[in-house]
Amino acid sequence: MEDPEENLEAAWQKQLDLLNRLKGSLYKIRTTRLYMEGQLARVTYNAKQAYQMDSQSTSLPEIENNKIRNLKRDIDELISREKYLDSIQRELEARIKEYRIQRDILKKRYSAARLLTEKKKNKMGATGDALKAKHNLEKLKETVLELEAGAAAIDELVKDGFFDK
Length: 165
Description:
With 165 residues, the chain is mainly α.
């Protein structure tokens, strides 16, 4: 028979593993986003420096504009993913907390039910043993009564001289 407590623990562990993997993904996304924000700052700074050095230019070079636009788009996408995973993490943590509460309650109820069942079995066993003992005692009383009746019958036969002949 499967142990319900082991099943509850295995499910609990799977949820914790999932949460840890989610946190790992969030870490990677945040690290990437922060790196890209640093890249954006560097590219923007370099582009402005180049613009200031070239007094004839009226705008940033197109290549630099594209790099900046692409980095901003990628950063925005990472921020969006980060927010989504943050919401998933909060939801998962709430579910795990609720599961832990339910798991603990079920484990206690299971233990109590198991103890109660064992107690009732022991009581039934004791009752069964008591019934057997009572039955054996009744049988013994009946046997004693039969033996006493046989002894009384022999006494009467001896008294009547039945064995003298």
